[in-house]
Amino acid sequence: MTNWGRGSGFWGAHPIGIMTRYGVFMFQRRKKRVCVISLDGVPGALLREAFREERLAPLRSLWQAGGAVELTSTLPPISSVAWATYSTGVGPGGHGVFGFVERNPQEMSQHILTSRDVAAPKLWEHAAQQGKRAAVVNIPLTYPADPLSGWLVAGFPAPELSRAAYPPDLASRLAQEGYLVDPDPGTAGEPPEFFSQIERALATRRRVALELLRKPWDLFHLHIMVTDRLNHFFLSDGLTDGRWREEFWAAYEAVAELVAEVVAALPPGTELVLMSDHGFAPLRWELDLNAFLRELGWLELSGEGEGPARVAPGSTAYSLTPGRIYLLMQGRERDGWIEPGRARDYLERLSEALLSLSTPEGEPAIQRVFLGRDIYRGPKAELGPDLLALPASGVELRGGWSGEGPFRPARRQGGHTLTGAFLWIRGERPRAGEVLDVPATVWALLGLPRPPEFEGKVLI
Ligand SMILES: [Zn+2]
């Protein structure tokens, strides 16, 4: 690979004459383009294992033309947080996304987040400021689609197709196409329907992506969500001789073909990045941290329904999925009573109780706990949880409101992990890093000056 101008803005879009001792020669300044294809929740190890079993051939041949390293996800390691981090180049304390649902502590209410809650400029806005156009397909938490210099198809959650794309004629094109943003997870109990939705999601994604590839973009991002869905519902089947093993791998083959087709259609010289946002592991247990807090005597539920509105006055703490725990702080929560100077005591006791918690099989249930004030920095840091628990492998954390016990056998086959995601760059040997580092790395590949907001490192 050539290294012309990497990391500098010198090489422009016009022919440049260079005077040398041999005279003047001309060359066409290469237009820098970067295409990022992301496979939600795909562990690098899963791909390597599939390649060893001679699966995913189109991806395997591509894989050999670059270097792959491990990426660490965000805290917590879920798609909304990881993709808000990727989309802005700043961590959760900067963009204010800590889950799919956020709470309003004064009202003790909760709401589902949208693109409007991501409180930092997006990569495509930075690109526009530097005179570049982006085409963005299906990155989570980009709904509703806001105007941009380029084209955007929103990722999940995206309830109305008419607001899921920019410019508006692209939204009509999606409707015509019968575009499926995401398979309905409710169909996982009916696998034939689930796999047929996966097929439709990929087929419509393919047609729209290939159309957008013909637009004059500088940064192209295609996100594949179905891999996360496959892993949640059928990972164990895929890794063992499960009932839906063949269907699981057939869907992965379709993903590999889609990636290969998009790569084949890229303009010559495009820099290519493949990545995932978090790892995955088979699950054995589901742990409801609100049920755990109730057993500890720290939470009492009142009323009906779901969410912080159920937290009874006098409670000490409650949890939101996944692993986020909030104290009832004086002056912050409605009915909050814990004085700021006492919070540390409570959090230390809570950490100890969490770290000594065992699954019904006697294994540790929690791998690590973090204090929000230690891990979140930036203008939105105070929105984050007071404590974040990271589950042990095989355990999935929920903040439930059902009033049942803490542990139940996992209803899904796979759950997210902080480690195990991957970054692959064609013709490069990147260093291992974090999801937070990818935007700075993409900017280096684009040869653009790095936006000062970016918090990550360049990995090449
Ligand atoms: Zn997921």
Net shape: globular
CATH superfamily name of the largest domain?
Alkaline Phosphatase, subunit A
N- to C-terminal distance? 13 Å
Residue share in β-strands? 15-25%
Cofactors and ligands present? zinc ion
Quick check: average pLDDT?
93
The tally of helices reads 13
Strand arrangement across the biggest beta sheet: 9-8-7-10-3-11-21-4-22
Q: Find the CATH topology of the largest domain.
A: Alkaline Phosphatase, subunit A
- Tell me the count of domains: 2
Overall number of strands: 22
Characterize the biggest β-sheet.
9 strands, mixed
CATH class of the largest domain: Alpha Beta
CATH architectural group of the largest domain = 3-Layer(aba) Sandwich
Helix content: 25-40%
Low-confidence blocks of residues: 1-29
Structural class comes to alpha/beta
**Rg over alpha carbons:** 23 Å
Describe this structure in words.
The chain is of the alpha/beta class and 460 residues long. The chain folds into 2 domains: 281 residues, Alkaline Phosphatase, subunit A (3-Layer(aba) Sandwich), CATH 3.40.720.10; 125 residues, no CATH class. The protein is built from 13 helices and 22 strands. The strands form 6 sheets. The chain has a 9-stranded mixed beta sheet, with helices on both faces. A 4-stranded antiparallel beta sheet has the order 14-15-17-16. The protein has a 3-stranded mixed beta sheet with strand order 18-13-19. The chain starts with 15 loop residues before the first strand and ends in a 14-residue tail after the last helix. Zinc ion binds next to helix 8.
